[in-house]
Specification:
The structure is a single chain. The chain is an alpha/beta fold and 363 residues long. It has two domains: 5-26 and 271-362, Aspartate Aminotransferase, domain 1 (Alpha-Beta Complex); 30-269, Type I PLP-dependent aspartate aminotransferase-like (Major domain) (Aspartate Aminotransferase, domain 2, 3-Layer(aba) Sandwich), CATH 3.40.640.10. Helices cover 42% and strands 14% of the residues. The strands form three sheets. It has a seven-stranded mixed beta sheet, sandwiched between helices. Strands 9-12-11 form a three-stranded antiparallel beta sheet, with helices on one face. β3 (95-99), α6 and β4 (116-120) form a beta-alpha-beta unit. α2 (27-43) packs antiparallel against α10 and α11 runs parallel beside α14 (347-362). The radius of gyration is 21 Å and the shape is globular. Pfam families: Aminotran_5.
């Protein structure tokens, strides 16, 4: 894959290993956004006249990127908003399986609505535990992140496909915020019923944009109440609004969703297979170094065949500042120092990080 670090000013000035907190803005994206602002500046409402065709085009871009159907794509300002609206539409008799420290917008949206909930811990043998719990508790819904935001544990997508085949009535809802943009993903072939994501991390779309996508078969499982003029594209006579469009109840920001589309096109031009190979190389190198230093939890250390681009390191929060003094930007989550990699990182970044960590541990 071609080197793209030069496209991202932050990556040129820092060792930025913090995509799990925020993806970066490229100079090309800045140019695009300035053009959009200029069009609005000189056009006013004329700029908005193309919104229906514009957003339909964005839906097509999302569908093409994830191998789904454009008519089954909802555009949402963020995953959290969409997830809450969606869970509100579940029948009160549903029983939901959750991972115990999954992203709050997944777990809280379920727990706050009084649905029956079953939780399980994230362990090295996660897939075995999930299968056992599904057989034992017979949940009707399983909601999960493909990659865990705290420690980077990545669920085996081949397992998810088999799980769906064995339990076809089990509704699978997946958050791809910490995963989409790191490798090719076919929604059509995944076995997952609903996917959603915010676009500001590995998708490089900036803030205020995200999406949900559905299979045809799951539409009847939800009775979503949200709706508005935008759900009907301004048609005040509309009486039959689909689930997909009920998640588009109000005006959408062409600036933000155009940025999401731009990010997807940027990644597509780089080739997702090449991106995957490149990021796998960085993750394997980092994993070996972190393991050697004894910084990984068992749930990650014992899953070398399911590495993501996120790692949780057993270090105190004070070391976040030590790294910052060396221009290394990371995060701190759940009593762990979290680092994460994307296309603007290099082996040099990994080497610099490992050297800094060795110095910390040797002091």
């Amino acid at each position: 894959m071609k080197q793209v670090q030069k496209d991202f000013p932050v990556a040129q000035n820092y060792t930025y290993v913090n995509t799990a907190a925020s993806g970066l803005l490229s100079e090309d994206m800045l140019d695009y956004r300035q053009e959009q602002d200029l069009d609005f500046l000189i056009g006013g409402s004329i700029y908005r006249e193309k919104q229906v065709s514009f957003f339909n085009n964005v839906r097509k871009s999302v569908a093409n990127f994830f191998d789904g159907k454009a008519t089954n794509v909802s555009l949402v300002p963020n995953f959290s908003w969409g997830m809450n609206a969606l869970i509100e539409g579940l029948k009160p008799t549903e029983k939901v399986l959750l991972l115990d420290v999954d992203y709050p917008s997944i777990n809280w949206s379920v727990e706050s609505r009084g649905l029956k909930v079953v939780t399980l811990p994230i362990t090295a043998n996660l897939e075995e535990v999930i299968l056992e719990k599904v057989k034992e508790e017979k949940p009707t819904v399983f909601a999960f992140s493909i990659v865990q935001f705290i420690n980077g544990v990545k669920i085996d997508l081949a397992f998810i496909k088999k799980l769906k085949a064995e339990f076809p009535e089990l509704l699978l809802i997946a958050d791809g915020t910490q995963y989409f943009g790191t490798e090719p993903f076919s929604f059509k072939d995944s076995g997952i019923d609903v996917i959603g994501a915010s676009a500001y991390k590995w998708m490089l779309g900036g803030y205020g944009c995200g999406f949900f996508m559905f299979t045809d078969a799951v539409m009847s499982r939800f009775d979503v109440k949200t709706t508005g003029m935008a759900s009907a594209d301004g048609n005040m006579e509309a009486t039959d609004i689909s689930l997909v469009r009920k998640l588009d109840p109000g005006h959408l920001d062409m600036f933000n969703f155009g940025s999401m589309q731009f990010g997807l096109e940027y990644l597509t031009d780089l080739n997702l297979t090449d991106i995957s190979d490149y990021l796998t190389g960085l993750s394997v190198k980092a994993y070996k170094g972190f393991k050697e230093l004894g910084l990984l939890d068992d749930a990650v250390e014992n899953r070398p065949n399911q590495l993501s681009t996120i790692f949780s390191l057993k270090l105190e929060e004070k070391y976040l500042g030590v790294l910052r003094e060396q221009s290394i930007i990371a995060s701190y989550r759940a009593n762990r120092l979290r680092v994460s990699f994307h296309i603007y990182n290099t082996e040099k970044d990994v080497n610099k990080l490992l050297l800094a960590l060795r110095k910390i541990l040797n002091n």
